[in-house]
Amino acid sequence: MAKKSLKTNDKTRIIPKHIGIIMDGNRRWAKKKGLPTFAGHKKGYDIAMKVGEWCLDRGVSILTIYAFSTENWNRSKKEVTYLMRLLKHALSNETKSLHAKGIQIRVIGIEKGLSSEIKRAISKAENLTKKNKRGILNIALNYGGRSEITEAVKKIVKQKVKPIQITEDLVSKNLFSSDLPDPDLIIRTSGEYRLSGFLTWQSAYSELMFIDKTWPEFTEKDVDHAIEEYSRRNRRFGGN
User: Fold this and answer.
1) Where are the beta strands (DSSP E) in the chain?
2) Which residues does the annotation mark as catalytic?
3) What pTM was computed for the model?
4) 14-144+182-231 topology per CATH
């Protein structure tokens, strides 16, 4: 699919269709400010509620955010409870606003382990917004790249597909994000240089960008910088 572009200051910027963001550094931001961990997560939540609009305004049509990984269950019970409360609040209270803006909400990940309240909130948000066309907010919740691939293999086995019939395309069609294009650009904040299981299969040819500032410090200008940097890269997908 052709990339969108827009002109600004006499320069043509190539706009990625799909951006993925690993929102890292909430706890470090709070510690640096002498605040409790929860304050960092709340600030990070506030930025997450803005970043979709920033991306949409620049022509990005799909945003996938890493909200909660399968490994995050290893954090303290108190912290996990707070994070789940934030996620439920987002799905229950932000959906109408996103729906009014024409945004479709999707959630990818493993349902097992999620509370019935969160599952109901996910179902309501997805059903309400499923026909929206302006853009897609894809939330990776209880998500892990290896888990996603494992689940895809299980689906293929259930289909009784012969080994010779298994292709990369078949695997892709059995992923959580089967009908979405792979991310063009993945951004990770807080200075960590790894993907931590985020879209493991889909990120094979994604451009990667690592930003030193923590997620609560992320701004609209950082979106512009990311798009400008993406525009300068030459994506050859293994070609010359």
Assistant:
1) 4-8, 11-15, 18-22, 62-69, 103-108, 135-143, 185-188, 207-210
2) 24, 72
3) 0.92
4) Undecaprenyl pyrophosphate synthetase (3.40.1180)
